[in-house]
Design brief:
By secondary structure, the chain is an all-alpha fold. It is 85% helix and 0% strand. The chain has two helices and no strands.
C-alpha cells in the first residue's frame, strides 16, 4: 500500500512512487510473461504462414512453367497442322487440275476414235 503524504511533503517534492509488495508485482510479471508468450506464438504462426505461402508460390511457378511448355508444344503442333492442311489444299488443287486435263484429253481421244 502507498503511504499517505501530507500537503507539505507534496509541495516539497519529497514524495516517491512506492511499489507495493505482494501479489501486485507478481501479477504484473505474469501478465508481461503472458504477453511475451502470445507475441512469440503470433510470430511463430506468421513465420509458418510465410513459409506455406512461399511453398505455394513455388508450386504455382513450377505449374506455370509446365503450362508454358505445354502451350508452346501445342502452338507448334497447331502450326504444323496448318502447314500440312495448306499443303494438302495445294495438292488437292493440283490433282483437280490434273483430273480436268485428263478429262479433256479423254474427250479429245474419244472424238478422234469416232471419226
Amino acid at each position: 500500500m502507498t503511504k499517505a503524504l501530507s500537503t507539505r511533503e507534496l509541495l516539497r517534492g519529497e514524495h516517491r512512487l512506492q511499489i507495493g509488495h505482494g501479489r501486485g508485482r507478481w501479477r504484473s510479471a505474469l501478465l508481461f510473461l503472458l504477453l511475451l508468450a502470445f507475441l512469440g506464438l503470433a510470430f511463430s504462426l506468421h513465420l509458418r504462414q510465410d513459409s506455406e505461402q512461399l511453398r505455394r508460390l513455388e508450386a504455382v511457378q513450377e505449374e506455370n512453367q509446365q503450362l508454358k511448355a505445354r502451350l508452346a508444344q501445342l502452338d507448334m503442333q497447331q502450326r504444323e497442322a496448318v502447314g500440312i492442311q495448306q499443303q494438302l489444299v495445294r495438292r488437292n488443287g493440283d490433282l483437280a487440275a490434273q483430273v480436268k486435263k485428263l478429262k479433256t484429253d479423254l474427250a479429245f481421244f474419244r472424238k478422234q476414235q469416232e471419226r
